[in-house]
Specification:
- It is built from three helices and four strands.
- With about 160 residues, it is α+β, with helices and mostly antiparallel strands.
- A four-stranded antiparallel sheet has the order 2-1-4-3, sandwiched between helices.
- Strand 3 and strand 4 form a beta hairpin.
- Helix 1 packs antiparallel against helix 2.
- It is globular.
Amino acid sequence: MATPTNSPLPLKRLEQIATDACNSALASAEYYDHPKTAGWNQTIIQRMLSAIISETTPEGAKGPEYKFAINSTIVQHVVPNSQLNKSTSHAIPASPPAEGGAPTDETSASSKKGSAGRRGMHSATAGYWNEKTDGMWSFKYDGEAKGLDVVIMLTWFHI
């Protein structure tokens, strides 16, 4: 994980760059749309690279003192169609509660079908580098209103 001593930019600035890139790429998105994810990822990565290279290149230099790699992963939430302004193919009527008020298994199952949730995800990364000059930083953009999250990882190597 990045520390203020080896990050090429202040961590708060990296957060702002990542947030701005995600906001820009997802501005017109209403919900997770898989065919559009490659374009969104490309926009996020290109906007971040452009900003980071610009801000880390010393005045008068041909380029920055670092090489950068950025990974962007868009994770879909499990979201009911009703929350995405999409119609469902058909409605499943719920059974009335059994005598005594306890819901039947069918009622419980059908009520859970419309519940929003998140998919599980775990990612790990390791590197062999100079800990004084190289590093990595990760960031999660919360796109809950759009039914997605974006997980970004920036890696830098001093040259």
